Known about the structure:
Layout: E1 4-9, E2 15-16, E3 31-35, H1 37-43, H2 46-50, E4 79-81, H3 83-89, E5 94-98, H4 109-121, E6 126-130, H5 134-146, E7 149-155, H6 160-167, E8 172-176, H7 180-193, E9 197-198, H8 204-221, E10 229-233, H9 238-252, E11 262-268, H10 273-280, H11 305-314, E12 318-322, H12 324-338, H13 344-358, E13 368-372, H14 396-403
Parallel strand pairs: 5-13, 6-7, 6-9, 7-8, 10-11, 10-13, 11-12
Antiparallel strand pairs: 1-2, 1-3, 4-5
Helix pairs in contact: 4-5, 4-8, 5-6, 8-9, 9-11, 10-11, 12-13
The structure holds zinc ion.
Residues 9, 11-12, 14, 24, 26-27, 29 line the site of zinc ion.
Amino acid sequence: MGYATALRCRKCGREYPLEPRNLCDFCFSPVEVTYDYQSMAKAISRKKVAEGPLSMWRYSDLLSVESEAVDIGTSLTPLVKADRLGRELGLDELYIKNDCLNPTYSFKDRPVSVAVTKAREFGFDTIACASTGNLAASVAAHAAKANMKAYVFVPASVEPGKLVGAAIYNPVLVTVDGSYDDVNRLCNKLVERYNWGFINVNLRPYYAEGSKTLAYEVVEQLGWRAPDCAVSPAASGLSFTQIWKGLNEFAMLGLIEPVSTHMYVTQAAGSSPIVNAFEAGTVHVNPVEPDTIAKSIAIGNPADGYYALRVARQSGGGAWAATDKELIEGMKLLAQTEGIFSEAAGGVVIAGLKNLVASGAIKRNQLTVAFITGAGPRTQEIVSDVVQPLAIQPTLESFEEVLGERV
Ligand SMILES: [Zn+2]
């Protein structure tokens, strides 16, 4: 602990104290946490990390916290060697980072654990967030654990399962008649009026740090190497950029070789401003009106879209948008080859991966990691057509009559 030095503007480089803050006062660009990497490099080693707790907190040196973590049991999640899916898609070395297995069923527990810990350090007794569902659940769960009050704001169109998934932890649940982008704009006004820790506004730089653990874990699970290719979904674009930051921090600290990972960003075609900009060859991410069943990643005006775009380009990666039909096929393919039931965002990743391999962007022999960031059961209605049971009487005759030639 104790290596974080400042918040630094990503654009102009101005520095600020480690305080609740999202934007630079001069150029209004996002700020990020910086560290004394030189001192950290002397203290950190593969051995020291490996001896740490079996959770994201084994990387606490790189997570900017100064106090005991608010931890609901976010463990190391499996990196599954996906041989069946790999064969199906044409990849020899495919891995699935299965982040469905976090306490609130999405990767959000990583960033939220860091952000709520910082909120407590800053003396906030109330935390809040704008969410498409997964973040709301994670914030509410961490607030319960930390005995803090939580206000979670979601679009009224959020899936019923996501509302229950947040409400069970007893936050103040506010449904807003508008899109996620409307909810986010509202929260940016509320932060001026209320002295609350807004997880993805004034605590956003700390929140961002938690997503880096996705990269750290993958590197460690691969035997201290970065993948050749990484495929991840993007909503705000933040976690995608943080995976890249995490990989490069490990290289900077001498824990792995310099990183040559190609970073591929995937979005749903009904909400793909980052992919659109990539394909158009521009640096401007033009907002869109989301229209997709992949609601957890339906952000039309992505706060970190510019940076996500830059990572995809700088790393020699790419971008792909999957239609709703393709993403549903992706969900089914992942479930029916690897036994992993993801939410729609995971279907986007698998559909994107399929197309990236078919188009020759990702080669058969490249070690590829697909990030599956949220679990399927809370939004199961979108694949309810899989339920086609054989209805029988409780007799042998009925079974054989109905099954006929099938057995
Ligand atoms: Zn600035």
